[in-house]
Amino acid sequence: MAINHRWLMQWSYDAIQTLYSEAPYRLSRSGRAFPPWHYFLELTRRCNLRCMMCQYSTFLEGVALAEQDAGELTTEEWKTVIDQTGRFSFLTFTGGEPLLRKDFPELLEYASRRTRTHLVSNAVLLDEAMAQRFVQLAPKRAGGRGLNFIGVSLEGPPDFHDEIRRRKGAFSKAAAGLQELRQYRSAAKKNCPYIHITTVIQARNVDVLPQMPRITAELGGDVLNLVTETRMHDLPGLGDVSPGKWRAEDVDWPRIPYDDLRQALEETDREAQRHGVELRMPRMPREELLRYYSDQVDVKDYRCRNPWNTVFIGRTGDVYPCWLMKIGNVREQPLKVIWNDKKARGFRRGCRTGLFPLCPGCCHIEYKGAEDRNKGDQAN
Predict the structure, then answer these.
(1) Can you give the pLDDT at residue 7?
(2) What whole-number distance in Å separates Cα of residue 261 and Cα of residue 207?
(3) d(CA 146, CA 301)
(4) Of 361, 358, 363, whose CA–CA distance to 196 is shortest?
């Protein structure tokens, strides 16, 4: 029987995340954790698009273009950060649009020769030379050292996608880049980098969601990944003030009529099966996903191990176990010191007590399930 390496990699990722953090999450009353396993490196918040649902729209529209790169970590500073990551870790390069940084190819190569890497991009700037280099940096199969995955964000068919992106030709440029990538990957006889198409579930595109499996198949994507829309980044001072300050009513939650979303998701399921596309959904039961967009989910039904295994490093060096709380800066302290310092440990203890009103919709929280809700979370 042939091994589905995509499924195996996803299963392995989920299992590692859970097992790696289980002991400190359950047993460490002080809030200490093992070194992080998954690192998100936000190279920049600059972007060549102006997406309607972007979590950084306030920054992109409110900061002058000439000033948007102010304070970003330099090439050498990012290399110093990469040197502090574990050899068996997983590094995601994200933004903004990472390809806007002229040193991105250098940083990707530096990290890919050390550990497993992943890029999230709109692919508008993905040209032939870059596609060829990405394939050279990829392992033959998922799990090896190098560029394992490339995530490309698409919101619907061409004209619709361009409208949401506020740029004519954005879809066609991304499609051309993916074609180059697939051709070089095929010539190299590699499975990697796997391509996942990521679509944000939103009121604007709910009617075209069922078209996404076909589009993914036509573009040669390996996986269609549907994710929730979140609005926490709209809040001023996020990460700098106590997350306990915010209430659910402070957030402009995304809303989609229950029956409209239910029907769209059912049709998307059928189309994914029809086109042979692997469909990944948010980590919650379907009914919870519908509730998130039509009413409000109860954070008591969820837990989060993310602060025990994942770290976010912002463009200016700020460090977060979650975007809700800044715990330090890599320009001031080594990452390993920040990770288990007083502020980080305090945040983890708070997460064990219960999640925050801003947490619904986050792709890192886990649904406890009926059994856990009935017996209660022993960690609490």
Answers:
(1) 55
(2) 8
(3) 37
(4) 363
